[in-house]
Amino acid sequence: MPQWMSFVVHGLSASLLTCLVVSTAVAQTSVRPQVVVSGLQHPWALAFLPQGRFLVSERPGDMRVIAADGRVGPALAGLPEIAARGQGGLLDLVLDEDFARNRTLFFCFSEPGAGGNSTALARARLSTDETRLERVQVIFSQKPKVQSTAHFGCRIALGQTQGKPDGMLFMTLGERFTRKDDAQTLDNHHGKIIRISKDGRVPADNPFAAQDGALPEIWSYGHRNPQGLTWSPAGELWAVEHGPQGGDEINLIRRSSNYGWPVVTFGENYGGGKIGEGITSKAGITQPLHYWVPSIAPSGMVFLTSDRYGKAWVGNLFVGSLKFGYLDRIALAQPFKGAVVREQKLLVEIGERIRDVRQGPDGLLYVLTDSANGRLLRLQPTEGTSTP
Fold first, then answer.
1. Beta-carbon contacts of residue 212 (< 8 Å; ≥ 6 apart)
2. Catalytic residue among 151, 189, 190, 223, which?
3. Is 151 part of the annotated catalytic residue set?
4. Distance CA 267, CA 294 (A)
5. Distance between CA atoms of 215 and 209, rounded to whole angstroms?
6. Residue among 123, 121, 173, 184 at smallest CA distance from 146
7. CATH number, position 141
8. Which residues partner with 367 through β-bridges?
9. Model confidence over 196-243: pLDDT tens digits?
10. Domains in the chain, number
11. Would you call 274 exposed, middle or buried from its count of C-beta atoms within 10 A (0-12, 13-18, 19+)?
């Protein structure tokens, strides 16, 4: 049975950072992974289709429908050209809130072009016979394109206002590894989170839409490589991002905020040595809600709103770890909000890289494991004592 971890709690403000060591001797609930399907090629993202079916993206460049009984369909036709090298490929996907009527979905990928490649966001329609994508339209391309195979970011969240869909899209963008200083300037899309409408137009109320020299799609900046993005039921946008060697972060995403990379970080250079001045806070820079040292390599995140695993898990945040191969259950001071107070490692026994985690329509958690024989797992609750 997995054990609670001892760790340090990190508050919202640098002046309020506090330390709290949590005992490992507490009762707990666990999960049993049930294999829905195996044999996927580096699956990256998961969406839930009607009638218990799934839509999965595979990083090498394929998207597939999976039947409720686990039968894997052929690769869908109609995808654009994809630069599937290194960390690049076909990455996140989400279904439109009105998918049952309009069959619209959004996906992001590494787009080749003059100068190299960049992260792009596309809109498409899944054909009625579910064999191809139709009306594929790229509605955003990260600028500038560079020669890099790393740090694409590429998580998508449907926009909302006061918990209701508002017709907007948010997407995370990495700083492409070789261009880390770009994350602090507004004349490029590297190391940013953007906000656009579903047809690709820039909302007039974006924070930098009227600022000379700034790209209008930018919502926040100072990010390194965010690969998790989700709304809390409390109406806040949360992100996780990869730090360098140490310093992976959970951030609450606010309009126009600067999250510090590479000026401020809790990590260090690969192989050791400080980054920049080696500072962890600075005036005008938003502190993370929580950070990990050593890095866990976080990817995918979701809040659990169902009580399928007991009441103690409702309001917890779940984040995949690529580096250590577990699902991190994160308890907060209040359900869906507040500082981190506990973490529990789940799925340690399977030892696989967790790329994505989502809550299904049945209230259960589903994860994708990232390998050449990737799997879609359904997490069944096991009998036991719920953790307070």
1. none
2. 151
3. yes
4. 8
5. 7
6. 173
7. 2.120.10.30
8. 357, 377
9. 999 999 999 999 999 999 999 999 999 999 999 999 999 999 999 999
10. 1
11. exposed
